[in-house]
Amino acid sequence: MKTTVSSAPAYPQEKNHVLNKNFRPSENFFNSDKIFKNYLKTNATAEGFDYMSARLNVTGKDAAGKMNELSLLADKLGPELVKRNYLGETINEIRFHPSYWELMKVAVKSEMFRVKWEPSLRKKFNTEKQLLGFSAGYIYALSECGQFCPLCMTDGVAQLIHMFCDEEDRKRLLAHIYTDNAEEFYTGAMFLTEKTGGSDVGANIVTATHKEGKYYYLNGEKWFCSNANADIIFALARTDADIKGTKGLSIFMIEKTLPSGEKNPMEVIRLKDKLGVRSMASAECIMTNTVGKLVGNEFEGFKVMVEMINVSRIYNSVAALASARRALIEAYQFLCNRETFGKTAIEHPLIRTKLTELGALNVANFYLVMRTVKSLELTDNGDEREKHLLRIINPMTKKWSAETGVYITRESMELMGGLGYIEDGVVPKIMRDVMVLPIWEGSGNIIILDMLRAMTKSKGFEVICDEINKSADNNTEYGSWIKAELRKLAAFAGKISTLAQDELEASAKPFFEKLTSLYQIALLTDNLNEESKQWILPALSYLKGKYNPSELAEVTPLSVGEVKGLIAWEF
Question: What pTM, to 2 d.p., does this model score?
């Protein structure tokens, strides 16, 4: 008797996939980002664009390729503190996975510092050095935000060395920052915060005792030392404990290695176990007769440090912009090639509506961040009006880009569903990394207070109002509306200045948020051109509606083509 075995139905393996066969990830982030490329071509000189685009092509390819794996490795296999060697000798050595150093090589090769600080290039590109340098930083940060922190502080250290150090130190140290040889590259750090005060650096208690000449012995603990393995550190300390607050602080340059070749004494107590930016080392450090060189005048340490904070806040904004942009692009590429409920995901109206929101926020942040970079450039070149503007838009940009960066990243993760939550991809890492950006370089409440100071101690508010007015004059469609809203803000500014301190501080937050939104809308009108209108016009429409929400009404979502124009990314 024969036994009949029924064959099982064939499993449709060819249909079992996450994305369709059209999926092609970006191969070069510089070439893919139409918004960024349009801005750079429009605002750089032809010579600057040609010089930097050659480097950006290389960095863009690295960012879309090898940096992805290196970044995930450096995140998962973070730095380790080795307190002692085999013989029991204290060495306080911070060791990194090789991926960390490979990422640092990409940064050096990108010329983000070389184009700013190498003397001949600095002279050649003096009116656009910040634009060119931050362009390389932006492309780099699309893949690696963790190491962008040490790179940020390195540029800040270069700024302090350039402005306040003597000629010998400038020549000797800046050459290690603008080098094109990663083996000779020095990174920087700033050690500000202590247990006693945190953001209130006026409560710091680390002491500085005179040694000889400009050299002092520093003693005490620094509580949050990011890039603890830096070659050049700027630290605040007190030469006179009786002078309280920030007025008693001086600033000192600490080099990892003393002129004798010995290690400058500093004990690393432990590495911080951070939620994100795990590729770089943040630590708690105790200085015991650590040798530091006084920079600038005694008791002017906080004034000097502000120059570094100005630079680092812009880095914070660029990091937020790049991180959110990358998360949005990951979701966008996914949605363009994910088929659900009988159609491609991007064809669903609710998805198009969400991408419209996120895309508009991203576009608005892009032009705000780039305007702040331009203001730094002009301030560096002696423009007093821009100095006042920078005083208010730098903290404004830092706060807004960081907060919306977190939101864009979170929403992008949700758009990808469960896959967006899996650590094999880059979005969870971006989510963890971007969470620090509203905290670093002044948390939200500190920023509000700083903007209040900018209103009373500079002409920043008057200048930004003038900027918005000029933008309105040049745009027939939005001009009258912008002017009407600006009049309301100006009237309220006069009112809150008369309030008691509690009411003043509480009222300032919604006021500055409105001012930021209106300034972003004005900037979008300024940057309209034949190519950019495909992403600026839908962003303007969305942002105006969000600024003054109306009663419930019918919503017509953008078409697939319009959404793609708004996102402006080729792959």
Answer: 0.96
